[in-house]
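Hi F.,

I've been meaning to write this up properly since the lab meeting, where we talked about keeping a consistent format for the predictions we share between groups. The idea is simple: the sequence comes first, exactly as it goes in, then the structure tokens exactly as they come out, then a line or two of notes. No screenshots and no reformatting. I'm using this chain as the first example so we have something concrete to point to.
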Amino acid sequence: MKKPIYFLILFLLVKITLKSQEKFAIDGYVSQMGSSVFISDSSNATWDYILHNRINTAYYFNENVTAKLQFRNQFLWGETIELTPDYAEKFSMDNGFFDLNWNWYGGSKSVLNTQIDRAFLEYTNGKFELSIGRQRINWGRTLVWNPNDIFNAYSYYEFDYPEKPGSDAVRTVYYSGSAASYELVAKIDSANNLTLAGLRKISKGGYDFQFLGGYANGEDFVLGTGWEGSIKQFAFRGEMTYYHPQNNFKDTSGIFLASIGTDFSFSNSLMIQAEFLYNDRKTLAQLNQIYAAPANSKSLSISEYNFFANVTYPITPILSAYMAGMYYTDQNGFFLMPGIDLSLTNNLNFSLIYQYFNVEITTNRRIGMNMAFGRLKWNF
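Output, unedited:
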């Protein structure tokens, strides 16, 4: 019964748009991507294909009220679906309170799916802002790992989903200054777990600071802080979050995560970026659990100490290249992601991306996983 509510919103948006097109905005993109995955021998590779369409809509009722609906349609075909039991069923699972992820079709080698990840009403009046519905609550400061992002954690490896997931939430913000605010958010997920937290932002000494506290995922009390500024020409940002389980409140079984990062751009447009994550979680996530989306912001890594570096350079005005990498200390493992982006026209881009994981799974036994992607993307 939850899904029809959003279809009603979509119907009303379309109906109103026919009467007042100047108040309606729409954009999005269409992409097609082929991929290949193999462990060590490319002769045993699996091949897959994704046709991906995203639609972003907004209707401006007046200067105070806006309705936004954003969704993606995906057609997936390939051997991964054929080799994975219940792939279609798992792909249509929705972590939100409302079930807004469903399959139109699921076969032995293909799936046609629609997922609504933004559907909310937003009200603004002076310094006050209120939004209700599925929305992105972004409390992160660093660029790769976000311990402060307690509402909707995301995966750095999932490059084909730049919008990132949303939450079914109520969000209120009061802006007390140009770079200062109070924010309160309440979210409920598919298991009816509550996340309720407040955020205070201030600006001091050339830095933006934030402080958060609340209750996360129906199981933890949480405290955190973050900052963003610069040291001379180097950007300097970081986040720290502490989780303490409500069921063991009197002991010291809490979990602490901290990330710190920097980046710098040279005069020739060469950009370097580095980041470090510390995660003292006693039971760390497995690689396959964090690749598509971490369960929460406690499960951001497979190692206690994690290092990241990236170099990006625009070779020509229409061609850029990058090399990103990670090092996982616990597994003595690493991740590499080289890629190139080519602008064919103002709205058409071609990308080649390669991902390589190499980790030690047992003593004297390592495993390497290769993933190659070719994508053509048209924005409108």
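Notes:
The two ends are 33 Å apart (CA to CA).
The domain at 195-380 is CATH 2.40.160.10 (Porin).

If this format works for you, I'll send the rest the same way.

G.
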